[in-house]
Amino acid sequence: MVDTKQFVKAAEEKMIFAIEYLDDQLSHIRAGKANPKILDGVRVPYYGSLVPLTNVASVNTPDAKTIVITPWEKPLIKEIEKAILNSEVGITPENNGEIIRLGIPPLTEERRRQLAKQSKQEAETAKISVRNARRDAIDALKKAIKEGLPEDVEKDAEAEVQKIHDRYIKKIDDLYAAKEKEIMTV
Fold it and tell me: Which residue, 18, 99, 155, 160, shows the most beta carbons closer than 10 Å to its own?
């Protein structure tokens, strides 16, 4: 006898992964407030290899419009500054010889709309992943009918997968709505 719980559990795990991925992607989108995560993609040359910025400096946000980077070794200031300029962060660093400040400029209306659109695309990608997980589970259940699974058990499992799907689609919508509100708030 085929156990339908394994198909449901596998689908839910894929949906959880899609939500976690979306949350991570949305956290990297700059919304006008200082957020150290926007520097996650910055790599600094350090003893012959590129390492994440957080491996060579501490990153803090003393207020909502400033990110302060304190290198652990003074000679790294120039390297960190160059890495930030060459990255896609889009903010010019200010160096006082000891720390680097990044002033987060206010977003224009046009830039806010672009970021909201980018967030929407990320949410749609996550929804596609959730739908694919549902489809894979339903296909596996339909194949299990051929292996002797009763149809009523398959229908119940399919309904459970659909409920889980609906719950995760709502979570995606909620995450997107929160991010859109954060971006559009001046």
Answer: 18
